[in-house]
Amino acid sequence: MPAAASLAPTDAPPAISLKLLPAAIVVTSAIPLFGFEERLVGYPWLLVGLIVAYFVDRELMRDLGIIAAGLIVVSTVSVKADISWPNFFLLGFVLSLAVAVPFVLDRFVFRRKVIRFPWRGGQKWQPWEKSYLFAVPFLGWLILPFYFIQSGSYQNWPAVSEPSEVLRLFIGVNAVGIWDELFFICTVYVLLLRHFPVLTANILQAIVFVSFLWELGYQAWAPLMTIPFALLQGWIFHRTKSLTYVIIVHLLFDLVVFLAIVHAHNPGVFGFFLIESPGS
User: Fold this and answer.
1) Weakly modelled stretches of the chain, pLDDT under 50
2) How far apart are alpha carbons 42 and 24 in whole angstroms?
3) 148-202: per-residue pLDDT in tens?
């Protein structure tokens, strides 16, 4: 049986149910936790969601508890772009822990195999999947430099010029991109999919995904991009059942993110973008 076979329950969950209330409370706790960095608001709101889930559905409470554990781990540090050596390793450790803790809870505490990382979807890539791999960097090239420069959001990332700094920025951008898929898709989305239809589970995970990206630096009008991106990543994963594919898509996008940030900070370095760097 393919590894992705457990992505959804056997019986299709109802479109509307009381379960939606505690799930919505838990995922929206990401808004104060990451969007506003208000832990004194986010943690109690998270707890309220788990308490409501206890009275609504115990299995849902377990899954939301696993998600909550990951959110709490991530919230212990700031995820704002900082490529100093101490923060580089600290953030790497915390984000790794945020994936490991839910996995351990699912596999060894609750003795299930809900959280999986299906590197192979068990089927050949369809023509649309191959075409999309070309569309992603093209759309990124078209949109991202305009977004970063016009909104000023490129300043949420450090200016880099030294080879060590450039390398750390490149590794950091791509490592966080891979982590996004491991946590938001393979953990949050998959757990929610046990209780909700695809569209509902996808919208719920996107709330957490976009809130995290906001703290990371995708601010101003970035949600016009990050919301569709988060929803597309969830939908594509559901269609392909392939973690490898969604990571490739994300890394192609993040390659352009990296180039656009370097371009915005360093006039004249890259001449292939449609918009000039500030100060050119």
Assistant:
1) 1-6, 8, 10
2) 13
3) 999 999 999 999 989 999 999 999 999 999 999 999 999 999 999 999 999 999 9
Instruction: Give the Cα separation of 189 and 102 in Å (integer).
Output: 13
Backbone angles phi, psi at 10, to 5 degrees: -65, -45
Q: Which residue type, as a one-letter code, is found at position 18?
A: L
**pLDDT computed for residue 161 by the predictor:** 85
Residue closest to 77 by CA, chosen among 55, 65, 63, 92: 92
Angle made by CA atoms 240, 106, 37, in degrees to the nearest 5? 85
Computed over its alpha carbons, how large is the radius of gyration of the chain?
Answer: 19
Supply the pTM of this predicted model: 0.93
Query: Does residue 273 sit in helix, strand or coil?
Result: coil
Can you tell me which residue has the tokens 């001449």?
271
Kindly state the helix (H) or strand (E) to which residue 214 belongs, with its residue range. Answer: helix 198-216
> Which residue in the block uniquely carries the two structure tokens 């703290």?
215
CA separation, residue 190 to residues 76, 146, 237 (Å): 24, 34, 10
Alpha carbons within 13 angstroms on the beta-carbon side of residue 138 total: 5
What is the rounded CA–CA span in Å between residue 226 and residue 230? 6
| Cβ atoms 246, 129 nearer than 8 A | no
pLDDT at 125: 87
State both tokens at 199. 């569209």
In contact, 241 and 2? CB cutoff 8 Å: yes
* Cα 156 to Cα 174: distance, rounded to the nearest angstrom: 16
* Of 23, 74, 75, 30, nearest in space to 49 by CA: 23
Rounded Cα–Cα distance for residues 192 and 207 (Å):
12
CB neighbour list of residue 55: distance below 8 Å, 6 or more residues apart: none
